[in-house]
Amino acid sequence: MSDLVNKVAELLNAPVDLVQRSAEARAVASGTTVDAVLSSWAGGESVASAAPAAEAPKEEAPVEEEVVEEAPVEEEVVEEAPAEEEVVEVVGEIVEEEVFLEVEQESSFAFIGGVVAIAVFTFLLAFSIPKNQELAIVNDSLNNKVETTNDVIKGAQVYNELNCQSCHTQNVRALIPDTQNGRVLSNKFANEALIKTVGDLRTAPDLSTNNTREPTNNSQWLKRYLKDSTSVNRDIPHPSYTFVSESDLDYLITYLLSLGESNE
Amino acid sequence: MKLKLIPKNEQELSKFFVILFPLFLILSSAVMFVKNSYFTFANILPHNAIFNYGKLATIESQVSFNLLTSASLSLLFVYLFSKSLGRKMVLFPLAFLTLLGLIGVSFLGVIVQNSLVSLLTILILFGLTGIATINVLAKKENTIFSSAQHIYGAIVILFVATVISRSSLEIYSDQILVSSLTSSLINMTAIPLLFMSAIYFLMTKGLGATLYSKTLSSISFWGFLFLLPWTSFKYYYGSVLPNWLENVSIYLSLSLIVPLLAFVVNFIQSSQDNNDRSDRLLSQLNFSMIVFTVTTALHVASSFANLLPILGLTNFVYAIKFGYLSSLIIVVMSLILYLIPKLFGREVSYTNFDKLGLTAVNISLLLYLVNNLVIGINSGYSWNAGANAGNPTIYGEGFQIQWELISVNFMANTFISLLFFASAGLYFITTVKAISSGAVTTVEEMVSS
Hints:
Chain A contains 13 helices and no strands. Chain A is mainly alpha-helical. Chain A folds into two domains: about 100 residues, no CATH class; about 120 residues, Cytochrome c-like domain (Cytochrome Bc1 Complex, Chain D, domain 2, Orthogonal Bundle), CATH 1.10.760.10. In chain A, α1 crosses α3. Chain A is rod-shaped. By secondary structure, chain B is mainly α. Helices cover about 75% and strands about 0% of the residues of chain B. Chain B contains 14 helices and no strands.
């Protein structure tokens, strides 16, 4: 059989292993043996008649007939030439099929389902377990009864508008554990504006215990510092809130003085 | 150069975003510079309702992380998504309007932050998720290309992030939970996914290489998608967040090493098959990969228990976010230079001037990243050292000690952002020069069916 394969490969000017694989695939497709396929290719006879993919070569038949009619002497030569073309086409088709089969179909539904499942999982976990757990802790806290005035809430709103939390946090960690910091927990029951003042970056001093320390527990000092920080300390950069109205500044100071009051 | 008011296909719309991104980059770098100036020169600059550090910090966050991300997402979606799925975009007019809406609402978010803007954002991202889903379902390729996978993941994550950001705050820890998760989803998940989508495209199509392994690509995609949203809670170690959540965050952060390795190996192996010998593109991709890998490695390394108390709530967290953004900026810049010949039919010349602009952007982003890492480590270290010595530097009295340690770096931030601003300007000139007067070349046919 190897001689036959070599012969066909030489005839088609194609690699031997490619011809062998193509012949095997064609044999399966056409329900014949590999030898029969190779013999047919070697002899220029198309086995495609048994295969569904043989329609295209059949269409070329009328052309062959015309040529034969015009030049009967060259009959053999004329027959061989189109046979080669047929075989090349058949081999090409089979190779394409093989490559196609190697690429697995990837389901769009499975992919979308996977992404959406992760998204839903993220969403649900973020909104169920942590909140419930912390609510239980807060409900057990002794500091639930601390009342927050409207002035403090207005001050927190000014604090948010000025984005003080871009530098100041109220996350005292390690030194005073947050869960024991009364003022921090009491914020829960106050207002969303108060909760938003947490802050993510501790670039500037922490303000959670502002009212428990000198001189930041002094309203006059705070007003002077907020209006012109250089009058207190030139080295530390702090915005001068000269553009903030007097009433807003008073609200802000009220809020700052409320921080840490229940911690003592 | 021809820009149509209403684009008819993906190619025409891509042109719009190719021009828009460099403009937003200039805007972002300008705001960053002004913000940092108000930190360094607070005592001599005038203060008003807009020009003060707090307001500028808000604007900078919106411009850098939201506007630039939206512009990147729009460009990647309109160019890579349909290309990756092997077909013309389904519902293209709707996609066009949605992307314009996304840019518009991101821009609106810079000026005003209110409930209406966030509702509009949710609506637009919901629409974009729907369009992306329909397009994935209608794909013509046998497999979903890696770029499309990553873009789809980023869109869904952004949508979830905006929904979560609107949740009601019931207790104090909710704010930490919500802000941390939102930031984590946008800055540490969606942005890296967008970065990877561009990398997968450029390291194959851009370099004329073949993807080394689809399996590794899937491992990195699903790994990052599942792990990254949960990795920022660790920076609140010891706070009011539930301890189990902080511990989960630590373990999941350590697991990031698996998708990171898969991604890096895939990139290295694929880019070795650089048939087009695009050295300039390859060096840009390498640089962005280094920034991304170092950022992720630091994100993983910060999970160790003895480092967390130092690094949490400091500029270190900002540096991680900025690292991911930087890698996205670098790769989108490369993508734009790759696309100019294909979309506008003009060659990019890469003169010394052009190379200078690109190098300056890379250096400034890297310096900014390193400088903020140093600020984070130094400030965290001084806080802890002060606390152990009985001098709490987190409070006003002791803050002077800590400020003396980090003030030089904050001053350096101002000058680095000035360099970034100047180099973004050079990059803009490079793109405009290439589009308007580059040598004429063949325009790419976008999609076949």
